[in-house]
Amino acid sequence: MSRPSRTLPAHYTAVAAVNIVKNLRLVFWLNVAGLGLFILSGLLFARLLSAMRPADTLEVLSIKIDSQAALLWTFLLIVGSTAVTIILHEAVHGVIFWVITGEKPAFAFHGWYAYAAAPGCYLPRNAYLINSLAPLVLLTALYLGLMAIIPAPALAPLLWMATLNSSGCIGDIGVAVWLLRHPSETLAQDCGTAITLYLPSVKRV
What we know:
Elements: E1 12-19, H1 24-52, H2 54-61, H3 68-101, E2 106-110, E3 113-117, E4 123-124, H4 125-147, H5 155-168, H6 170-180, E5 187-190, E6 194-200
Antiparallel strand pairs: 1-6, 2-3, 4-5, 5-6
């Protein structure tokens, strides 16, 4: 089956599933890995910025908070750029879901995280793999492109957004690795809080 469907083929059965809400141990380790990726991403983007715009790097990496107004502005900038990062990340997932399925995706918040999903759709493994990695690939390319041309005052929030997006992709990367451990004929159903994989009943991994 190479195209999405709202009907699971009769010879397919569920072979694996993960529920991000119920698996607290998984959430813990994803957060630990995400923190490590945040640090590595920050160092990498800072190094790339230094190579692209050495004259602006020192100013960007120097945080000056010398008044309450500056503290408030810095806080608002962090909150605002974080919100934009989350929206862009899920928007990319949503657009890819829309392209793949031809149907509007579902967007929602569940406690501490946001998600885009295609509930009721069974997606081919490779299509779902593309969706999983799209925010990492497309938004990283966008941020690097902007990093080379935007005015210096906008570099600090952009650096934060690039780093946050990369670390926020830790779950997507985990899903991609999980998918690649299954055959290409695998179907995936993403309900937002849970992902279930299906294979023909005669084939197991």
